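pasting for ref. prot 1 ->
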Amino acid sequence: MRTVQLNIELPNMVIVTEFELKTLLASKLYEKGELSLGQAARVAGLSKRAFIEILGHYQVSVFSENESDIRSDIAHA
């Protein structure tokens, strides 16, 4: 894994934590198929189980759309 530092300007009325940004980014990258479940959990700094619970908050299904992704997740669980 590599570390990326990013500065984002947000309006003052937007209150968001670093944790929320990490979980949102990890969830969307998982949803797009850019990260596996395990990789996304690591990006968010969570266990797979905790990350699966977070996915529901972002309306992201834990189930991948293709069979090879599901088999990979099972093999690496």
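and prot 2 ->
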Amino acid sequence: MIRIKNGYIITEQDERKRVTIYIDKEKIKAIIAGNDTTIPCDSEIDAEENIIFPGFLDPHVHFDDPGFTEREDFETGTRSAAAGGITTIADMPCTSIPPITTGKNFDNKLNIVQPKAYVDFSFWGGVTPEQVESNKYKKTLKELKEKGIIGVKFYTISGMELYPKMTIPDMDKAFRELETLNLVCAAHAEDFNLVQYYSRLMEKMGRTDAKSWFEGRAYQAEPKAIWSLLGITEKVKNKLHIVHLSTKEGLNAIKWGKQHNLDVTTETCPHYLLFTIEDLERIGPILKTAPPVRREEDKNALWEGLQNGSIDFIATDHAAGKYPEEKSSNNIWENYAGIPGTQLMVPIMLTYGYHERKLTLSKIQKLLSENAAKRYGLYPEKGSLKVGTDADFTIVDLNKEWIVDPLALESKGKYSVVAGCTLKGKVAKTIVRGTVVFNEKYGITGNKGYGKLIKGNL
């Protein structure tokens, strides 16, 4: 039996409630108001007057293992998560070799990455045009569902040879099968034709500046792709999720879908909430992502979406490039499109969401934990403070100020878009199933291989 003492939880009414939490066999045994010592314990965890959140999730990461481990692997990725207060991550299927498009590939990845994991993890599954056209997709999607994937990832544009873009006819067929399987269809939404044409136009013009990336990934590519995806979902009635939302117009399309009772959700990422095209021009390749950061009005619309609930949760799209080799060319097109984000998501949202934009702690809790867990069939085991569920907690010192040092990141990518910034709010302890895997005073305290696969239960 373990006792967590001297901490506060956040109620639905956004009130701080002092509690004592008891943990037994990796589960929450009891949550008792006030300071309590009535239950005998073998050990104690001191929350030191800080906030105890349900363990935070990062439901969209690329930890590149196996396949691209020169950029990231499951050990460094999950260490980064632990240090960032993330107790469960969900890894995408596309940046693995082979991609997670069959049950066999799922097992192969699991066998490789589980011995490296410091925190719990889930897998996204995948499907390719070739599988749809050969009619193998029904068998492989059913296999993946049985293995425990939380959903399936689609690209309307892709530069990955082993994970090509899906056409509308292919997505229609796959969405119908996934509706039957009750799985979420998550889509990278940028219109292929618009991006291909304007990116090539930039190349023909000899443009290599940072803004040419922004102009090549045409603004209307995102809303256009979202409208196409909504068009399929309106017909099929599947569960649709738009990843890394970056535009005001894309959000307007999603609002339309919600208003018309489509089962659509979306996420955005910290970099779209903090930066604009002017920052990309100033910072350069380190801030290159796909889609790119947008305009001031888009940034403000995304914050408003978090406040009013039209954006459902936060994810990082963590994708560390090999640094500095892949993030330092004077030609923006030669740089890798991705940034590490998992370790800094929580302090960024506390600094700019809670302290500056006045998002309530109750809303922060939903955006970083509860909502994603519910969407992907991980709740209440993950994302809740309910007796009998996994004892996952993120203990946060809300007011501690500190300066971001990229060299201190656990990720292989030792760079950050907020390098040198002063953040307010720091993860004090990360607890996965009752075990402290990160302690601010000592660093990583968990063991490699402790993290386990968490299956979706939709």
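The mean pLDDT is 98.
The first strand starts at residue 2 and ends at 10.
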